[in-house]
Design brief:
Number of strands: 15
Bound molecules: 5'-O-[(L-methionyl)-sulphamoyl]adenosine
Distance between the termini: 49 Å
Number of helices: 20
Number of domains: 2
Oligomer: single chain
Radius of gyration: 26 Å
CATH topology of the largest domain: Rossmann fold
């Protein structure tokens, strides 16, 4: 089966920050998990490079829009590497191949009768690149998102007949109660539709930085009408000479934050309906990462700058923290204090140290060979049904819920060590069988949780799996079942997976 997952494409006129990293890591966790399930995955992220803000920023920097986007886009591409993201393609909307496909699509929508010429007058936010409808206008004609005054704009425009899709969209939502997740975002999008859809301006004649309308080159498209199409063009242009869209359209899931839900859950399906193309299967809308500036810790510097965090603690720590601290789908605060606590207690102690201790005991008491599978370890009931329940939660994209469940198992393994006290069992020859079962249970528990954790912390889990002699299993979700391992394999060396913070700082 094929599975196509996307992130929003990011505006290049700002620096990449943790918020961008968050969406991209979320999509990456989904992509990695689906690959573990044997799906043929296509995962796309990229940059959104047209629009007025780029023109304004370029002017301010005394450069051309093209030079500016060429300078900034690589920073976003570099961030994907920094945070260990496994995208199959990085799309840039200024690429000629994307622009040509965008023109094909709009020509088709035009030919299907869904555009017309008119005069636009309305309140426009240059930062959102969006004309605001009446109920979206804040106090004193300000933008409720950016808190800046809206501009009164009037210009000749081509319009997209969004209003024609009111009923089809209502039906789409009624027929697909999980089309937008989580549910409160579905309700938000639906109430926007129920409030009445008006036609939207599709083009601008006052700026020239954008994709020209093929039937009227004196107009360029509003950036959103070119940007949303990245999801459609990416599979067509990712491999020159090969069109992957037969395999990867419709998209399986678009990941984004709540700020751009209207475009994705309303405009985008309407555009595809106007084109006569199949709709994406699902949208997942996450919340905002909020930062409590006051809690910034001097010793860590600006630790929540993703690049800085990764330099200090590695990409896995950042990836883990985002999804553990803030429930995927809701807003949540992040802080350096929270980061330190999670890093030290959960990653360094509960996972990293559990692994080091377990391996050290297998080495010391059993010459580095994992004991053969015993009749019973005492952990079976804790792990029963884990693979199925994890899969079910992943299917609902509950990325934080999955992590919560896995962490209960990690904690169970820590308690197991204390309860069994292998160091005591080792002193009593008559309890050798119990010691074997305990050490097998630890290795097997670590193997299982590491496969489950792999999409979140790919580097550390790969190291751990190699150290317990199961390197090749890390990519196979079907093996994430306690008791599938026979034991008998040799273990290897494992460097500390998450060195304690103090030692990093010194
Ligand atoms: N270019 C448009 C998207 C076009 S998609 C066809 C855009 N770009 S953006 O650079 O402003 O990125 C917005 C996205 O970045 C959000 O939807 C979200 O996915 C992510 N985030 C930016 N800041 C964020 C937080 N503080 N918290 C969570 N996500 C954040 O809009």
């Amino acid at each position: 089966m094929s599975f196509y997952v996307t992130t929003p494409i990011y505006y290049v006129n700002a620096e990449p920050h943790l918020g961008h990293a968050y969406s991209t890591i979320g999509a990456d966790v989904i992509a990695r998990h689906m690959r573990q399930r044997g799906e043929d995955v296509f995962f796309v992220t990229g940059t959104d490079e047209h629009g007025e803000p780029v023109v304004v920023a370029a002017e301010a920097q005394n450069t051309t829009p093209q030079e500016m986007v060429d300078r900034n886009a690589p920073r976003f591409e570099a961030l994907t590497e920094t945070i260990d993201v496994s995208n199959d393609f990085f799309i840039r909307t200024t690429s000629p191949a994307h622009m040509a496909e965008v023109q094909n699509v709009w020509q088709q929508i035009h030919d299907n009768g869904y555009v017309y010429k008119g005069q636009y007058e309305g309140w426009y936010c240059p930062k959102c690149a969006d004309f605001k409808s009446e109920h979206e206008i804040g106090e004193d004609n300000s933008c409720p998102i950016h808190h800046i005054p809206l501009d009164r704009e009037s210009e000749e425009s081509w319009f997209f007949k969004l209003s024609a899709f009111q009923e089809p969209l209502q039906k789409l939502f009624a027929d697909n109660p999980e089309w937008v997740l989580p549910r409160h975002r579905y309700n938000e999008a639906l109430s926007f539709i129920d409030g009445g859809l008006r036609d939207v301006a599709l083009s601008r004649s006052k700026i020239s930085w954008g994709v020209e309308l093929p039937w009227d080159p004196s107009h360029v498209m509003y950036v959103w009408f070119d940007a949303l199409l990245n999801y459609w063009t990416a599979p067509k242009i990712a491999r020159p000479g090969e069109d992957l869209s037969g395999k990867f359209w419709p998209a399986s899931v678009h990941v984004m934050a709540k700020d751009i839900i209207k475009f994705h859950a309303v405009y985008w399906p309407a555009m595809l309906m106007a084109l006569g193309a199949p709709l994406p299967e699902r949208m997942f809308v996450h919340g905002y990462l909020l930062m409590d500036g006051e809690k910034m810790s001097k010793s860590l510097g600006n630790v929540l700058d993703p690049v800085h965090v990764v330099e200090l603690f590695g990409s896995d720590a950042l990836r883990f923290y985002c999804f553990r601290e803030v429930s995927f789908g809701n807003d949540g605060s992040i802080s350096t204090a929270g980061f330190e606590t999670r890093y030290n207690t959960e990653l360094a102690n509960e996972y990293g140290n559990l692994a080091s201790r377990s391996l050290a005991m297998i080495k010391k008491y059993r010459d580095g060979i994992v004991p053969a599978k015993p009749v019973v370890t005492g952990l079976e009931s804790d792990f029963a049904g884990t693979r199925e329940s994890t899969q079910a939660r992943f299917d609902k994209l509950e990325l934080s819920g999955v992590l919560d469940d896995i962490w209960l198992l990690v904690r169970r393994l820590n308690r197991f060590v204390e309860e069994q006290a292998p160091w005591k069992l080792a002193k009593d020859e008559s309890r050798a069988g119990e010691l074997d079962a305990t050490l097998y249970g630890l290795a097997e528990g670590l193997r299982t949780v590491s496969i489950l954790l792999h999409p979140y912390i790919p580097k550390s889990t790969a190291k751990l799996m190699a150290a317990i002699g199961c390197a090749e299993q890390v990519d196979d979700f079907s093996l994430a079942e306690f008791g599938l391992g026979d034991g008998g394999q040799s273990i290897g060396e494992l460097e500390p997976l998450f060195p304690k913070l103090e030692s990093v700082e010194n």
